[in-house]
Amino acid sequence: TMRESYASENDSGFKCLNPELRPIVVVGGYGQLGGLFCRLFELSGYQVRKLGSQDWERADEMLADAGMVVVSVPINLTEQIIAKLDNLPEDCILADLTSVKSGPLQAMLEVHKGPVVGLHPMFGPDIASLAKQVVAYCDGRHPESYQWLLEQMQIWGASLNRISAIEHDEGMTLIQALRHFTSFVYGVHLAEEDPKLEQLLALSSPIYRLELAMVGRLFAQDAQLYADIIMSSPQNLAMIKRFHQRFGEAIEILEGQDKAAFTQAFAQVESWFGDYAQHFLTESQGLLRQANDSTHR
Ligand code: NAD
Question: Of 82, 96, 76, 88, whose CA–CA distance to 33 is shortest?
């Protein structure tokens, strides 16, 4: 079985699916996730070179005969670092491990004419084994030349999940992470404030009732699942922190009793929504009528 072969191969190493591959260069290989992949490649018999932040003077030399380059650097530096990889051998595979996919994939396709694949391991560097861990991947170019890599990760125990970069990113940050996180915090806040829920509901307009339902339904589901979704990418935390910062700025408006600033911010958002503001007002009126009808049935 997969588990047995993992256990028995872990000490001596894993089966090597592409023994002819020239050296693998891991850019950011001294980092957490890059380091983990370096170990796994080495355990599988590949020759591995780590290209750290101090190594760019020697980069041409290190990259000249690379069979594969894997980028695993901080997200905010990823695209500019990929842009430096403009002289790879034509048949070299260019891959990355970034938790966001569209930007890095685009940057890789622009800088390199050969095979390109985007990977997002859905786990942190602290795992004991890759058994049952998921790696999402986005096809870039020449998928036939990196099938062995996908299979190699399966030999490590991972299961592979193909998705488009855009779908991946859309799913990750705003809708899932921020939305669930704000519901989570609102729930924590309610529980701490401990109001009488029946009384709140009695005082609620239908729209507030819906809002409560959206928050409450989260807590009828699996905590672990939501923890995983919210914490799946550093990008999510950055987004949530920006939200937190804006929350703070809005509180300053309140503390200053600054109605002018409030009105100005309000107008900015109104113009950002554009026609959608009016559209959403009408649409929510329709939804609320439906919700109202069904509650009174
Ligand atoms: P990390 O900070 O541990 O590693 C990044 C490494 O890049 C560091 O060693 C840093 O010194 C190096 N680096 C910085 N600038 C560089 C440069 N100019 N040239 C070469 N190296 C440079 O971060 P990490 O957690 O290992 O994350 C790396 C990537 O893995 C990110 O794209 C992240 O989205 C992705 N990822 C991380 C996790 C996780 O849980 N840690 C999970 C999935 C994906």
Answer: 96
